[in-house]
Amino acid sequence: VHLVESGGGLVQPGGSLRLSCEASGSIFSIYSMGWYRQAPGKQRELVATITSDGNTNSADSVKGRFAISRDDAKRTVVFEMGSLKPEDTAVYYCHADVSNYSGRRVFWGQGTQVTVSS
Predict the structure, then answer these.
(1) What distance in Å separates the CA atoms of residue 26 and residue 114, rounded to the nearest whole number?
(2) Are strands 9-11 and 112-116 parallel, antiparallel or unpaired?
(3) Using alpha carbons only, what angle is made at residue 37 by residues 33 and 105, rounded to the nearest 5 degrees?
(4) How many CA atoms does the CB half-sphere of 35 hold within 13 Å?
(5) Is the Cα torsion angle 18, 24, 30, 36 positive or negative in sign?
(6) Distance between CA 57 and CA 17 in Å, rounded?
(7) DSSP string over 30-92
(8) Do residues 80 and 35 make contact, with C-beta atoms less than 8 angstroms apart?
């Protein structure tokens, strides 16, 4: 299973960015997909996830600013980030909880840098 992330980059405070992540490979079911982030010197933290039922979970720090959605046919999760703040600067990692021939496992993308700075 591979997770390919796209999007990210440099944006000014108050700006917007769109991240997407596509899962490929041998997959039976995708239970949830989402995004975590890790800022320098900090632990990786959950930003937002979405289950196969469409239920979402997000960090309090991003509620009202970020929105997550998924396209099961394309095995893709999209993350719309708005009203970005410098404290949103981090490497963002796509996360997928899936089942395949090896059973149920969690997979991670390689990470994409998001920098919010003027």
Answers:
(1) 29
(2) parallel
(3) 35
(4) 35
(5) negative
(6) 19
(7) EEEEEEEEE-TTS--EEEEEEETT--EEE-TTTTTTEEEEEETTTTEEEEEE-S--GGG-EEE
(8) no
Report CA-CA distances (Å) from 39 to 14, 24, 75.
19, 27, 27
CA distances from 18 to 2, 22, 100, 115 (A): 20, 13, 28, 13
What mean pLDDT, rounded, does the chain reach?
94
Closest CA to 82 of 59, 98, 63, 104: 63
% of the chain exceeding 90 in pLDDT: 89
- Each residue's pLDDT tens digit, 28-72: 899 999 999 999 999 999 999 999 999 999 999 999 999 999 988
Q: Give mean pLDDT, residues 95-114.
A: 94
Q: What is the pLDDT of residue 3?
A: 95
Please give the pLDDT value at position 73. 85
7 with 115: CB under 8 angstroms? no
